[in-house]
From TrEMBL:
Protein name, as recorded: Uncharacterized protein
Record-linked InterPro entries: Polysacc_lyase
A Pfam family the protein falls into: Polysacc_lyase
Source organism, top-level taxon: Bacteria
Species assigned in the record: Paraburkholderia silviterrae
Length: 229
């Protein structure tokens, strides 16, 4: 991967480049987490396999961003009704602690999306079921104008060109945070060790494009150029 990218994983095989399962000749990034691995040396010690985007791609308050990415859920994916798994997040910078201000998760048989701030709490919405997405690529677009006051804030999520979440003037960032950043992959803060069916989770990601209004493309991450070693 690009030198600035950080990969959080327990073992080398948790984030790897593989052949695209749908499009011949293309590549994708495969991320995996498993209860059989030791995560004590990874971030906060919870199961995760995530790509952290570089310092040059930080989200500033009041700026207008567009983020495009794609996900592929393999047939081996076993939903967990009790505990969600984060697949995409905008994480706050070093200013403050708490859950991410923007978070897309899979919980049970459906997606969930949440936006939050330290001022106005959280707004969360259940999205569509994942059943029809298994075995195909899903294209996501997030329009994001971070503002902890809510005065200029804008959050809109599209799934395959259909708006599935939209809000205006709802605080969607932490106060004084000018360094929030994008993370993709799998993160599961809690995991039920008694459920053997959920001992291993896998997800694929395609290219990611981040652009800013008035600035053009800020960066593109391509699986074709990835080096996960």
């Amino acid at each position: 991967m690009a030198p600035e990218l950080v990969v959080q994983k327990a073992s080398p095989d948790d984030v790897v480049v593989v052949d695209d399962p749908v499009h011949s000749g293309r590549k994708a990034v495969k991320v995996t987490i498993s209860l059989d691995e030791d995560y004590s040396h990874v971030a906060n010690g919870a199961p995760r396999a995530e790509i952290v985007f570089p310092g040059s791609l930080r989200f500033e308050v009041g700026h207008h961003y567009l983020i495009r990415w794609s996900t592929y859920i393999p047939s081996s994916f076993v939903p967990d009704d009790d505990e969600s798994v984060v697949i995409t997040q905008i994480h706050q910078g070093g200013c403050c602690s708490g859950p991410p201000p923007i978070m897309l998760t899979i919980r049970g048989d459906h997606y969930e999306f949440a936006e939050r701030s330290d001022v106005n709490g959280v707004r969360q919405q259940v999205l569509r079921k994942i059943k029809s997405d298994i075995g195909r690529w899903v294209n996501w677009v997030l329009r994001y104008v971070p503002d902890p006051s809510g005065v200029k804030s804008r959050t809109e999520l599209r799934k395959d060109d259909v708006v599935v979440y939209s809000s205006d003037r709802w605080p969607n960032a932490y106060s004084d945070d000018q360094t929030s950043y994008l993370k993709i992959g799998l993160y599961k803060s809690k995991w039920d060790f008694k459920n053997d069916a959920n001992r291993r989770l896998c997800l694929l990601f395609g290219d990611i494009l981040i652009s800013e209004r008035g600035e053009g493309s800020l960066g593109i991450v391509s699986a074709l150029d990835s080096d996960t070693e």
